[in-house]
Write a structure and sequence with these properties.
two-stranded antiparallel ribbon; about 120 residues; 2 strands; 2 helices
């Protein structure tokens, strides 16, 4: 006995289902990609805002600094920058290219961290 011939409508129905599944998959893929791009953009925007806020606060503090509180302002600057980038210590070093000289100025280290270079 031979195989029963398929009906013409049955083959078209499978074809339409395959097209529907393909279209649904494309919509889901587009949505997931759009969401991931949107989340990445939001994270980047938040990072940019935080960076700009940090820069503005540090600039304001340095403009208001005077001889009496300059060291405190620099230490606060190092603490803010170190915390922002997730570091446990930050340094301020002064470079003099004309004299080929490097001067270690200040260091900030996180809690329970010893100073790396004695002042």
């Amino acid at each position: 006995m031979g195989r029963r011939p398929r009906h013409r409508c049955f083959g078209q129905f499978h074809y339409l289902i395959r097209i529907a599944i393909l279209a649904f998959s494309a919509v889901v893929a587009f949505y997931v990609n759009y969401r991931s791009i949107k989340v990445a953009c939001l994270k980047e925007s938040c990072y940019q805002i935080d960076t700009q806020m940090l820069t503005a606060e540090i600039s304001r503090d340095l403009v208001l600094a005077d001889d009496q509180n300059f060291s405190e302002k620099i230490l606060d600057l190092l603490q803010r920058c170190g915390t922002f980038v997730g570091s446990d210590r930050a340094y301020l070093m002064l470079l003099d290219a004309g004299l080929n000289n490097v001067a270690y100025s200040q260091e900030w280290h996180g809690k329970d961290r010893p100073a790396a270079v004695p002042l």
